[in-house]
Design goal:
The chain has 535 residues and is α+β, with helices and mostly antiparallel strands. It has helices at 18-31, 56-62, 112-121, 158-161, 170-175, 240-249, 263-267, 308-317, 320-327, 358-367, 388-400, 413-421, 440-448, 466-477, 481-497, and strands at 6-8, 36-40, 70-72, 78-80, 83-90, 93-98, 136-143, 146-151, 202-208, 212-217, 231-234, 254-255, 272-287, 333-334, 374-381, 404-411, 427-432, 502-514. The longest helix has 17 residues, at 481-497.
Length: 535
Amino acid sequence: MKPHFKLLGTALSTSLSTLSMALAMSLGSAAVQAKTFTWTASADALSMDPYSTNNSFTNAFMANIYEGLVRFNDKVEIEPALAESWSNVSPTVWRFKLRQGVKFHNGETMTADDVVFSWQRVQTPGSISKLNLADVKDVRKVDAHTVDVETKAPFPLLLNELLNLGIMSKSWSEANNAKDASDLQQKKENFANRNTNGTGPFMVKSREVDVKTVLAANPNWWDKPKHNLSDVVFTPIQSDATRTSSLLSGALDATVNVPLQDVQRINSSGNFTVVQGPELRTIFLGMDQFRDELLYSDVKGKNPFKDIRVRKALYQAIDVDAIKRSVMRGVSWPSGSVLAPQLNGAPKNNARILPFNADASKKLLAEAGYPEGFTVGMQCPNNRYVYDEQICLAIISMLGRVGIKITPQIEPVAKWNVRLNTMDVSLYMVGHAGLPMADSYALLYDVAATRTANAGGLNAGRYSNPAFDAVLPKIAAELDMGKRNTLMAEAEGILRNDVGYIPLHQQPITWAARKGVELKQAPDNQLRLWLVTAP
């Protein structure tokens, strides 16, 4: 899991749009201060409540504020965080010794009561994080600085799974009527949705949703800071052009969403550096394989996607190499699997099971009873993945050539995210990096396990295969890594051959920063502010 990251150079300055000039005026003075770091991304964090969403960018952002018992470093390796050490009391009970003297941002001391409370809070109805903690049975206090975590069965990846449990203050949550997780799906917010009190390296000073979030370095952080920042200003900018112009103007120190078409401009400016490499994330298409009648379709009384011939037809209608050339500017890694090969336990064979062949696609549709094709809605985000909207438009054109007429439903990530969580989909784009566990099992469990209250959290199309489901508990309980990887390959093979999803490609990570700024890019595409240094 160590993809090569190559340094590219920097690019030519260009005239600013009105919005870019406004950003320069508001952020420019901060950008020249050595210890104030200003950065941008294409979208804002969806919530400040660490349990209310499974959005990868939001999780990455919040990891700078809330911490778990363990954390990933920039090599995506587990290391101690709020727990100093751990041991196995039994095959299903892990004992964690908590770090003493850790303070929440409001000055309160963290204890085992807060860990137990956090576990209880993550089980409340609005929580999305509980879907990523499904192997945990209970969390119990042993003493003020010790907790036991019990799993439902022997589970070798408990440490990875606990990355989903950011520790919250029991007393702060109770005092602010935030004992339950914010429920974004039901639009039920509470105090924790817009306010924070973590133990992490940065504290929220102010927040304007979709406008600006200002963080301050935590002076009482338990760890020895490797960063040299006093303040962090995050300004989400949806427009690609404005994001790049703002960077090149000096209004920003860094961006973690560089449009591929702007790499050359940045490369020639002389003041900025681009860092680029493959992400763990694979982009793929999901299909509603549950409803008896497909939503947003002219097919009545049945669901075409329940027929594997239709799923194969879609697969063969999409030219992933053309998408790489024409949309991704040559910077993507076409895939035959939902699993990136760098993920722990991913099979080495990443070949596509069927070639691009429009004629074969039409033949399959005719055999399935759709010689003239059919109409269906396609749900895509327009600010979540690299060139997500453009990819969807290219696919719409490709599917149209075989008779599948698409009604585009392209929308901002916040609306698209709710659509996925409420399963309001028919044919949809989604991506997954196996995070936060960085393991193949996490991805397979999240996107392909039969959806229940505790499984298949991102399985919006409700794919279900008993043979696939039967392998998952075996993977979860297998302590021998060789045997575990064999089981992983078996499960992935079932999903691949069943065309449960249509894989497209691994997308690139493309960041850029002012020369002298060290970002510590990692393949999980998470900006760890506690490792950032500015000149």
